[in-house]
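Hey, can you fold this one?
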Amino acid sequence: MSDAKPKPARIAGAHGVGAQPVDGILTRLEVSLPTMPRVQRQIGEYILANPGRVVEMSISDFAEAAGGVSEGSVIKFCRELRLGGFQHLKLSLSQNIVQPVQFIQEDLDPADDDETVLKKIFAAGIQTLSDTLSLADPAALRQAIDILRKAKRIDVYGIGSAAPIAEDAHYRMMRIGLDARVLVDSHIQAISASLADEDVACLTISHSGATHETISATRLAKEAGAKTICITNYGRSPLQAHCDVVLYTMAKETKFRTEAMTSRIAQLCMLDALIAGLALADHDHAVQTLQSTFEVLSSKRV
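Sure. Predicted structure:
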C-alpha cells in the first residue's frame, strides 16, 4: 500500500471552477500585506494568524470572524492575491498547511552558529525562488520579450541595491546583440527618459517599487512614448502604474535578510528567464553575437 499523499483536488464552484491550488499562498500574503488597504490587511492578518481555522469556514463565517467585513470584501481580497475566490483560497491554504517539507524561514539569531547561518541563508534563497516561480506569469514574460525585441534601444534603470542587477542586465543584453544601456544615476535617468520615444523600451528594476527616482524616470519614459517594463516584488506599488508589463518576484524580508539579499536572487533569476527568452527568440543572431563577444573577451584572459 502506497504512503504517497493524494494530490489536492481541483475545486469547483462559482469562485474558482477547476482552479489549481496556489503554492506558497501564506508567503504571498505576508509579502503583500503591508501594501494592502486597511480592510484587506485586516482580512490578511486574520488568515495569517488562523490558517487552519479558515480552511474549515464558510465565507459568511469567515467574514464575521475577520472583523465583520463583507463577503464582497473577502472576494476582492482573494482577487488581490490572484485567486478565483474564497474556495480557491481555502484549497491553497490547505495545501500550504499539509506540505510535508517546509523550508527554514526563521530569521537569523545572534546565537546561531556558522552551520545554522548557512542553512538558513540557503533555505531562504531556495524559498524565494520557489515562491517567485509560483507567482511567475509566462504571458507577462512573453509580452516583455516582444517589447524588448521590437525596441531600437533599451534603457535599464536601477538605483541603490538594484543598480548591480541593472548593470548585469545591460551586460547580458549586449552579449546577445541588443542595443542596451544602463542608467544608475537619477539625473541621467530623468534626462534619458524625457528624450525617449516609441522606439525605446525601458526596464526598471526596483524591489519596493517605491523608489522616487526610478518611479519618476519610468513615468517620464512612458509619457514620452516608450514601452515600460519593471521587475518588482509582489504587492501594490506606485511604480506599477507606469509600467506596461510587470514581472513579479516574491522575496520575504526579515530583520537580517533585507531586500538587498533575497530580492536580488529572485531578480537575477527573473532576468535570466528574460534574457534566455530574448536569445531563443532570435537564436541564430544571439549565438553568433555570443560567439563573437566570447572571442573578444578571450583575449583578456591569461
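Residues 1-17, 100-104 have pLDDT under 50 and may be disordered. Let me know if you want another pass with a different chain boundary.
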